[in-house]
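Milestone M4 deliverable, item 7.
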Amino acid sequence: MVSAQAVNLTVSDVAEKHLDVLLHKRPALFGTDGIRGTVGELLTPTLALQVGYWAGQVLKQQTPDAPFILGQDSRTSSDMLAMALSAGLTSAGIEVWHLGLCPTPVVAYLTQASRAMGGVMISASHNPPEDNGIKFFDTHGAKLSRTLQQEIEGHLHEAADLSLATDCGQYCARPELVQTYVDAIQRPLVSAVNFQGLRVVLDLAWGAAVRLAPEVFKAMGAEVICLHDCPDGSRINVRCGSTHLQPLQAAVKRHKAHLGFAFDGDADRVLAVDSQGRPVDGDYILYLWGCCLQQQQRLPGDVIVSTVMSNLGFEHAWKRQGGTLVRSAVGDQYVHAEMCRHGAMLGGEQSGHILCPHYGISGDGLLTALHLSAIVRQSGMSLAELLDGSFQTYPQVLKNVQVLDRDRRATWQSCEPLQQLLAEAEADMGDQGRVLVRASGTEPVIRVMVEAATIDLTQHWTERLVTAVQTHLG
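Output delivered:
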């Protein structure tokens, strides 16, 4: 245990002028998944210190006299940001429990289970190594509300002469708490199923799940083959993990495995691969898990919540099952909001971010991988057979078009030539396809997604729309 009394900092000590420049450079500091950006540009120790202090000041008004849970991924910058954030929190008089390297859902779970004031994860999820991020959770383990984010950000703009060392908290290393999470996600499965005889390949992306995921699958009886299984912040997500499935696909076929799973850097999402090397994205995971919960009569209203990115093939198949697919904006916080609105018990994103309140309080790649494996084992079929019996996706193409100008990204909907082309595309495809154009909340890109009944139609409109974005916005 280290006393925070050693921390005696003021805004001038941490370069208030630099902080002011950062905040004015990007007025909306919090994006769709916390604060995320390039280390040394947006994300600096200065900013992390201030964010920690003001997050503590804001959240302790709601839940006083409680600890704050902190976790991090393997990025080379995560130690630096975690220490700066801890200094800010302890300077606000808060006790910090640092879990060390762990997946994001561990922070969410332990925040709720320990009745903490809040939780924070240092990670940029699937982003490249040079990026990092700060994700906050409230006392219930949910992503921090937009109202609270704005309150924290408002204080950051106003903090000109604030002295930080007014009320000192404590810093405690608590890695042993991670086992509480492990026990919680295994408990519903261990008495119902085991994975003996199941050969599984895990691509751990050099990230947050390198220790936990193999341990949990082995404890369930599986034979485990690991890829990219050391914490390496300089290679996290680089040509591996959930955004690059090729290494996993090759390994599954090479080792004759029954299935494989690829996590992202903070393991809050997962994608699967069947024994033939075919990708199994979040749409298929939601469909298979939805059918299972529907049979168990544990899916209220037979509702699944997904995003505007989900494939039409999935939507039509779920309707044939008698279910309803509710679409939300992209981002797990929007999925969660729609789930609460409809009383849904299953939701998620095509990217593999799945939420099932029966078993967890946040998107959780490891929990999802365990339950998909259990579905395979209990069905008596292979994942490939389950996939063949599910649905066919419409051809879908997603292109990221770099738009560095933030104002142009934010106001793309006022671009008249692009709007005219969108209207033309929608009229041409009718009910045989759809188009989605949106500005990313985590990267400097405009995402263009087109899906249609034929690949020719999909590619035709993708190319035209990407060219329009490059011409008028890029």
